[in-house]
Every structure is written in structure tokens, then in C-alpha cells.
Design goal:
The protein has 7 helices and 10 strands. With about 240 residues, the chain is of the alpha/beta class. The strands form 2 sheets. The protein has a 6-stranded mixed sheet, sandwiched between helices. The chain starts with about 20 loop residues before the first strand and ends with a strand.
Length: about 240
């Protein structure tokens, strides 16, 4: 059984549970085409409270990944309002937006996105480097996460020496090592067999129970059941 990293006073448990962590108001994303605009998202209004586990579902092309990119502050080109812990993401310049994302958001991807030329331990340290964590503190945090995720024996291995499930486990450990307020997971079990997928989803459930807010995009009804609620997208619109 995998255990999970603890949360300190910087974790989301300190956030007022009555206030949304994420608040979107009439968010739209479109591209200019001949004769008008091709919309990917239309009038998305959504609140996500601290500690929620939200699933985004919909057919291919519904706008799921686009919405996740906006939530992750990776895509600043949209209309409408996005507040994160009260900060107006839609009005921030690139530097401030990136700093807000680094301090608060962890990403888990279907393709793992581990750095091939770094060991497991070195991959885990990357988010801490971005935050300017000292070398000694970084080493301590990496050792703690290696232990809590039961991957101490993998610390000196490279990604190509790991199975898919092990790579995803490292990806999740990397996402949570800096204790983000929000984890965004894009089809996190898409490349895994069923047993590995269940293990990863159980890990997400334990992270959420410990206080981390999670938003996942998935096509899997089984994965969706781990969440508290489902947001359905169709043709860019939130479906009833």
C-alpha cells in the first residue's frame, strides 16, 4: 500500500473551505477562422472548492484539455474571468501568472513527461529547483517522498528503466513534492493496464482525502467514480 506526503501549514487545508479555490466566469476560448471564430470553450462558469475531486468528461474535441490548460495557467489567451485563491489570473502578466502556477499547481500527464537524462531522484527535485528550495531542504524532501511512495530502490534509475506504472508513480510524486494546492491530471491512467490504473487512482483518492484538490480529465467511467462530481463538456459547453 502506498502512503502519501503530508501537508504543512502551506497546504490547502488552511484555505477557507467556504471560498472557491478556483472560480471561472464566462470563460471562452476561440480561434479566428475565415468567416468568424471557431470556439473551443463557450461561457464556462465553474467553482471548485478546496478539497474537491472534480472529473471533467466529454467526447474528443469537447474542450477538456483546453480547459485544463487554462486552469493550469498554461494558456493565458481566453476571455472571461479566472480567479485562483482570489488572484485575477486573467489580468496577470506572464511572470506573475507563472509564479502563481509554480507555487500552487502540480501536473500529472498521460505521457509522464519525466526528463530522460535525469534519475528518479533528480526528476523529483525539478519542481523544487523552480521554487528556489535550498540544496539541503531539496535533498530532505526528495528523500521523504521517495520513502513515502516506496520508490527508494528506484532513486538512481532513469525513466527508461521503469515500467509505465512506475513512471506514472514518479510523475505523481513529482507533482506533489512541493505540496501544491491543486493537482491537474490529464488522462493519468491512459497508458496503464487496469491493475496499475486502479493503484494510481487509489493514490489520487488518498491524496485528496489528505486535503489536495484534484481535477482530472478522463474518458474512464471507473476513474470518474473516484471524484466528488463530474463536469461534462460537449462542443465546448458545460452540459447539464
Amino acid at each position: 500500500m502506498l502512503s502519501i506526503p503530508g501537508h504543512d501549514a502551506r497546504g490547502i487545508a488552511t484555505t477557507d473551505g467556504s471560498s472557491p479555490l478556483v472560480s471561472l466566469r464566462n470563460v471562452e476560448k476561440g480561434y479566428r477562422v475565415a468567416g468568424g471564430t471557431n470556439y473551443v470553450l463557450r461561457q464556462v462558469t465553474l467553482d471548485i472548492k478546496p478539497g474537491e475531486f472534480v472529473t471533467i468528461m466529454g467526447p474528443s474535441g469537447a474542450g477538456k484539455s483546453t480547459l485544463l490548460a487554462i486552469l493550469g495557467m498554461l494558456d493565458p489567451v481566453f476571455t472571461g474571468e479566472y480567479l485562483f485563491r482570489g488572484a485575477p489570473v486573467h489580468a496577470l502578466d506572464g511572470r506573475k501568472r507563472q509564479a502563481l502556477a509554480r507555487e500552487n499547481i502540480g501536473f500529472v500527464f498521460q505521457q509522464y513527461h519525466l526528463l530522460d537524462d535525469l534519475t528518479v531522484a533528480e526528476n523529483l527535485g525539478v519542481p523544487l529547483d523552480y521554487r528556489g528550495v535550498s540544496k539541503s531542504d531539496r535533498a530532505s524532501r526528495v528523500a521523504d517522498v521517495l520513502d513515502r511512495f516506496n520508490i527508494v530502490g528506484k532513486k538512481d534509475l532513469y525513466p527508461n528503466q521503469l515500467s509505465g506504472g512506475q513512471q506514472q508513480l514518479v510523475g505523481i510524486a513529482r507533482a506533489v513534492i512541493a505540496e501544491p494546492a491543486l493537482i491537474l491530471a490529464d488522462e493519468p491512467t491512459g497508458n496503464l493496464h487496469s491493475a496499475q490504473a486502479r493503484e494510481i487512482m487509489e493514490l489520487f483518492a488518498r491524496l485528496n482525502a489528505a486535503g489536495t484538490t484534484i481535477v482530472q480529465v478522463t474518458h474512464s467511467d471507473e476513474n470518474a467514480r473516484y471524484g466528488h462530481r463530474i463536469v461534462h463538456l460537449k462542443d465546448g459547453w458545460m452540459a447539464p
